[in-house]
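Sharing a chain and its predicted structure for anyone who wants a worked example. Both blocks are below, sequence first, tokens second.
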Amino acid sequence: MNATSSGQAPGRIVLLTTSHRVAPGLLSWPAWQALHAADRVLCSDGTHPQLPYLREAGIRVDEAAPAAEELVDTCAGGRTVVVVATGEGEPALTDGLARLAGSGRIQMPELELLPASYDLPGARLLDLVQVMDRIRAECPWSSRQTHKGLAKYGIEEAYELVEAIEEGDRDELREELGDVLLQVVFHARIAEEDPDAPFSVDDVAAGIVTKLIHRHPHVFGDETAATPEEVKEHWLRTKAVEKQRTSVTEGVPLGQPGLALAAKLASRVRTAGLEVPLPRAEGVGYELLGLAVRAEAEGVDPEAALRAAARAYRDAIKETEGRIRSDGGEAHGQVS
């Protein structure tokens, strides 16, 4: 017995999908309308997180997992059946319905996919936090890591990100951004366990959100900024009020690469309008300092410029090695 042989109206099947990243019960208005208007509401998972909220709203939900043809028969007579999909999306049911529709022997009910809740931008970050939490609890290596132990990886990942940017490799860029993000989430997860001053990834996010809003009064406040230079003025002014620093050198990390350090100090000096003569001394270091200061004044990142030159040098080395090999010789001085 099926809808075709009975001659009855085929009815309607609504496959209702929800996101586990949205709190249960927060459904769209079309979803609530479909649920209240349905002749039957089915769900194959009795522990589905939406069920308590649907029943609280007065909707009867039957725990059932009918096969495709059974579901079509249930719709006979113009009835509407809503299927609350599990996290997997009911692939067996949808495949069965597709086979029935392709057979041409059954008058199929109207089929509708109705997303009841949507992921907001950034929703997959919740997955990352959950995965990191489990890894921290269950992985023998990750569970023993500390902030100090992970510090070197943060530096490595930052350099790999810069390399991906400079190489222009989009796939590599996406992957390296993920690796940098992992460092943030990993450190935040470790910080939750601190007995004296714990904080979480939510505290980290809240802090940067507050900082960004405060330092962009031209976006979130009443001030105006029409040029990048005016934006930078806003940023420096609000940062100075926040930090209450007594020297422009405060907050400059001395552990960064030498050229970058020199350029950062030069930038602080120039922005503050100070006249600071370069130290007079002999040696390559002081010559590099002068070059870095000159580069910063000309709007050139000396660290990036040197990396670009080093890459060109690398290519020249490989070209020379290839030419030697093609001539039947061996490239000397190779190291492992």
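Comments welcome. The first helix runs from residue 3 to 6.
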